[in-house]
Design goal:
Structural class: alpha+beta
Helix content: 25-40%
Radius of gyration: 16 Å
Shape: globular
Largest sheet: 6 strands, mixed
Strand content: 25-35%
Low-confidence stretches: none
Mean pLDDT: 92
Oligomer: single chain
Number of strands: 9
Number of helices: 7
Strand order of the largest sheet: 1-2-3-6-7-9
Length: about 190
């Protein structure tokens, strides 16, 4: 039987490989497509493995992303996360990597997680999942294809830019200043 950690590691590797392969073709897999496939695969594998206390609800297909600031809600037991995904933007020749953060969306995510907390005894955490690729061999794909950061920590980091609608957060800042970690460590 596969554990949830093993399932998430496999999807992290898949995410990295898919982003990298499409980049070599001159293509870019959209963030919403990566999210849809990841959620479907994780759900299917969790059901097949009999992981009954894990749940996922997409807010993309239900057109609730605008209301919640999130792409999905997932949890295990009483631990739940409202999640917004962002794809790493890479300018390879300039060695630039960043995530584009929509600030009103970030604050909607934080507000929605707070509003959902306490219902049915659950604590809902607001988080960002970052989809990554092409970062070099120092980053194992199973750990770094999908990383997560706490949304409140992200909001505190970009507080001085709150007068803008969007801001860029570098991969290095996500790792060093925002304590990004593999998404399989969420559960």
């Amino acid at each position: 039987m596969m554990s949830l950690k093993t399932i998430l590691e496999a999807q992290s590797k898949w995410t990295w490989d898919t982003m990298e392969s499409s980049a070599h073709l001159g293509e870019m897999v959209r963030e919403d497509a990566l999210t849809s496939v990841n959620l479907a695969m994780i759900y299917r594998q969790a059901v097949e493995q009999g992981i009954d206390d894990f749940y996922i609800t997409s807010t993309q297909g239900a057109k609730l992303e605008v209301e919640y600031g999130a792409d999905w809600l997932w949890g295990r037991g009483e631990q739940a996360y409202l999640v917004q995904a962002k794809r790493l933007n890479i300018i390879a020749r300039a060695h630039l990597t960043s995530y584009k953060i929509d600030l009103p969306q970030l604050f909607d995510l934080l507000d929605a997680a707070e509003a959902l907390s306490g219902s049915n005894g659950y604590r809902v955490h607001a988080a960002y999942v970052f989809y990554n690729a092409m970062l070099g061999d120092n980053f194992p794909r199973a750990d770094y294809g999908c990383t997560c950061v706490d949304a409140a920590t992200l909001a505190g980091f970009i507080k001085e830019k709150s007068h803008q609608d969007t801001c860029l957060v570098s991969f290095a800042d996500a790792m060093q200043k925002l304590d990004a970690r593999p998404w399989h460590q969420m559960f």
